[in-house]
């Protein structure tokens, strides 16, 4: 797989997973979906969706997928082969929460996915006119673009929302260009009374930096903040 990526990718692999839990080391992926999307044409080139066999699904009440459905007769191996073929034609993988999706790849039966990743929640800086939070939900992102939300927590549905959002972005190239910029880890210099400023700006408390509100930011994101920050690790990107 060729991972030489242009600064602005022209073909994207929009992907989403449904899983039986939150931990790739002990839980399993029950559903994989992907859409191959053309940036210049603003259109879907192809798509694939499949259930993957599991013995039980402790997240059934969230994603609505019975384990018995995953065990039904279906060409899931062929679907994985098609997924890899689509990945071969993509410049980057895109998900709405790459911090969650990415660690599952390379855990059988999911193959490794050696593509650059773009997160539409963390990496893309959406226009202010959309009135979105710094880390918007996929539901809010779709609604802000005038896209009806008819269901959530199924993989292909979420990929379709992303494809529809991208198809309506007049400056998608600019958004992707900024999303690909290097990021560094910063902690917010706010008082206890000002902590809401950091939280609203998408900073996380006590996870990236112990005892601090922190977030990885591009230069453009940092310059938009209404409060000071301090660089934590210049090697983070």
TrEMBL record:
This entry's Gene Ontology molecular function terms read:
exonuclease activity; nucleic acid binding
* Pfam families linked: RNase_T (PF00929)
- The positions making up the signal sequence are none
Q: Where does the source fall among the domains of life?
A: Bacteria
Where along the sequence do coiled-coil regions lie?
none
Looking at the record, the residues that make up the Exonuclease domain are 11-175
Which Gene3D superfamilies does the UniProt entry name for this protein? Ribonuclease H-like superfamily/Ribonuclease H
- State the protein's name: Possible DNA polymerase III, epsilon subunit
């Amino acid at each position: 797989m060729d991972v030489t990526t242009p600064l602005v990718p022209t073909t994207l692999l929009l992907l989403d997973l449904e899983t039986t839990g939150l931990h790739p080391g002990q839980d399993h992926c029950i559903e994989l979906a992907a859409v191959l999307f053309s940036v210049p044409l603003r259109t879907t080139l192809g798509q694939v969706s499949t259930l993957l066999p599991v013995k039980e699904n402790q997240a059934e009440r969230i994603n609505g997928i019975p384990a018995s459905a995953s065990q039904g007769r279906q060409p899931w191996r062929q679907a994985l082969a098609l997924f890899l073929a689509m990945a071969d034609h993509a410049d980057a993988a895109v998900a709405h929460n790459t911090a969650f999706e990415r660690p599952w790849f390379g855990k059988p039966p999911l193959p490794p996915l050696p593509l650059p990743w773009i997160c539409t929640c963390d990496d893309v800086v959406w226009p202010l006119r959309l009135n979105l939070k710094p880390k918007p939900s996929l539901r809010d992102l779709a609604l802000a673009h005038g896209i009806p939300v008819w269901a959530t927590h199924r993989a292909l549905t979420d990929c379709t929302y992303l494809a529809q959002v991208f198809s309506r972005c007049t400056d998608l190239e600019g958004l992707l260009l900024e999303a690909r910029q290097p990021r560094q880890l910063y902690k917010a210099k706010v008082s206890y009374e000002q902590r809401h400023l950091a939280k609203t700006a998408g900073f996380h408390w006590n996870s990236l930096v112990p005892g601090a509100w922190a977030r990885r930011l591009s230069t453009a994101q940092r310059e938009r903040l209404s409060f000071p920050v301090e660089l934590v690790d210049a090697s983070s990107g």
